[in-house]
């Protein structure tokens, strides 16, 4: 089958079977104008290659012929890049000839203008092409960022460490959070910090020793004494510390 006879071949097969275009359109729901364009080889009127192949396949199946040879011819036709099989050669040849002639005439016209310009203006040299400025890449410099500012030091921290020597019931609050609540056995050690206040409730005030920021703390009561609401703050912190030089062992003894 020749590529220029896609539409003619389909039309011939349809008419041999006595099938009208309207019947095909009604059965396949393909627009009648698309079917006419297909038979007249006006493929540029069809909605794109993908849909055109679908129309060809539907048409061929409806009239009862093998669609593959038709589709192969259509694919070869599309590779040529022409629009109409009937005038592919004519349009391609005349179009190329017109483009070639146009380019030749345009080139001759430009040459004539340049020659006339240099004859009429002797010594005039065409301006040099603009110089392209090369952008020199600066050497890479390591950027040394200043060190981040030191974060503000937190408020003075009160550190308390407790060593239990007797069975002791204790509640300890640090900045409002309960940190210790229950009975502590001899040998246990507990440590925590607070930035605002430490509150102690004791069921055996003499059952332990403690340090405040590493300095031994003063006795809070005798063994077995129940003392509540002992409040340690920055204002009275030093009042709970023994004079420097004394240790927790000295206080317990």
Write a brief caption for the model.
This protein has 253 residues and is an alpha+beta fold. It is built from 7 helices and 8 strands, in the order H-H-H-H-H-H-E-E-E-E-E-E-E-E-H.
Task: Give an overview of the whole structure.
By secondary structure, the chain is an alpha+beta fold. Among the domains are: 3-80, 434 Repressor (Amino-terminal Domain); 158-252. It has helices spanning 6-16, 21-28, 32-39, 48-63, 67-80, 88-120, 248-252; strands at 158-164, 168-174, 177-184, 189-194, 197-202, 208-212, 215-216, 227-233. The strands form two sheets. It has a four-stranded antiparallel β-sheet. A four-stranded antiparallel β-sheet has the order 3-2-5-8, with no helix packed on it. A hairpin with a 2-residue loop joins strand 6 (208-212) and strand 7 (215-216). Helix 4 packs antiparallel against helix 5. The longest helix is centred in the middle third of the chain and has 33 residues, at 88-120. The radius of gyration is 51 Å and the shape is elongated.
Q: What fraction strand?
A: 15-25%
Gap between N and C termini, in Å? 119 Å
Strand and helix order? HHHHHHEEEEEEEEH
Tell me the Rg in angstroms: 51 Å
Assign an overall shape: elongated
The major pleated sheet works out as: 4 strands, antiparallel
Please report the total strand number as a whole number.
8
Strand order of the largest sheet: 4-1-6-7
Number of helices: 7
Q: How much helical structure, as a percent, in the residues?
A: 25-40%
pLDDT averaged residue by residue: 78
Structural class: alpha+beta
Low-confidence stretches: 82-96, 247-253
């Amino acid at each position: 089958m020749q590529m220029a006879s896609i539409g003619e071949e389909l039309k011939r097969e349809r008419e041999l079977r006595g099938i009208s275009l309207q019947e095909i359109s009604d059965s396949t729901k393909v627009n009648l104008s698309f079917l006419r364009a297909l038979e007249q080889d006006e493929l540029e009127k069809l909605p794109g290659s993908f849909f055109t192949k679908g129309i060809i396949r539907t048409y061929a199946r409806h009239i009862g012929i093998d669609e593959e040879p038709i589709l192969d011819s259509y694919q070869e036709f599309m590779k040529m890049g022409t629009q109409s099989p009937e005038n592919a050669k004519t349009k391609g040849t005349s179009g190329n000839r017109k483009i070639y002639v146009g380019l030749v005439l345009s080139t001759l016209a430009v040459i004539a203008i340049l020659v006339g310009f240099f004859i009429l203006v002797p010594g005039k040299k065409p301006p040099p092409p603009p110089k392209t400025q090369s952008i020199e890449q600066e050497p890479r410099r390591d950027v040394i960022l200043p060190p981040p500012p030191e974060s503000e030091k937190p408020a003075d921290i009160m550190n308390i460490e407790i060593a239990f020597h007797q069975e002791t019931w204790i509640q300890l609050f640090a900045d409002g959070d309960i940190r210790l609540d229950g009975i502590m056995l001899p040998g246990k050690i507990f440590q925590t910090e607070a930035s605002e206040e430490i509150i102690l409730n004791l069921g055996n005030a003499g059952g332990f020793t403690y340090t405040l920021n590493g300095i031994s703390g003063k006795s809070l009561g005798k063994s077995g004494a129940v003392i509540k609401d002992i409040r340690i703050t920055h204002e009275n912190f030093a009042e709970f510390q023994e004079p420097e030089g004394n240790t927790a062992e000295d206080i317990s003894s």
